[in-house]
Amino acid sequence: MRFRLTPRETSFYDMFAASADNIVTGSKLLMELLGADMSARAEIAERMRAAEHAGDDATHAIFHQLNSSFITPFDREDIYNLASSLDDIMDFMEEAVDLVVLYNVEELPKGVEQQIEVLARAAELTAEAMPHLRTMDNLTEYWIEVNRLENQADQIHRKLLAHLFNGKYDAIEVLKLKQIVDVLEEAADAFEHVANTVETIAVKES
């Protein structure tokens, strides 16, 4: 790692870790949604909404710290991009849960559970990786694995779309379910954006 003569603001590391831990909470709520009957979904959505608000607060705290810090641990643009991408993940997960409730979806199509499992694994990896930003050690396997998971998510998404358009569902139901699986795919993309930003930071700091 590059040697520095100037002190750095270290609270960013804790804030990134807190933001990633909150994403794990969101992924667990997604998993909970899978096994819930329709009567329980509104309460899960409410908890997801609270988690999303906590994510917003964490993101705003990072931006505030960024604007008030003269010296940062790495490039300001990378801090902004990392915080924004972490926030995007929570936004997409909350949107997916909200759509399931708003559209009164009786049964999610087969394959959505695989999408959510990928997101849950990516959330765990991201939460494990954030503390390593302090030293930039042991991060290579993280971004490689998240990129692999995103490729897996792409394949699952394509299969889901093929299933939705096979004639089993009516047109309105297809529109509802497609929007849900598309948002879950966007969450997977956002995890990859986080991993790519971490890789960029690590390369610059090496």
UniProtKB/TrEMBL annotation:
Classification via Pfam families: PhoU_div
InterPro entries per record: PhoU-like_sf (IPR038078), Put_Phosphate_transp_reg (IPR018445), UPF0111_domain (IPR052912)
SUPFAM superfamilies named in the record: PhoU-like
Superkingdom of the organism of origin: Bacteria
Family recorded in the similarity comment: Belongs to the UPF0111 family.
PANTHER family xref list: UPF0111 PROTEIN YKAA
Name of the featured protein: DUF47 domain-containing protein
Protein's organism: Streptomyces lateritius
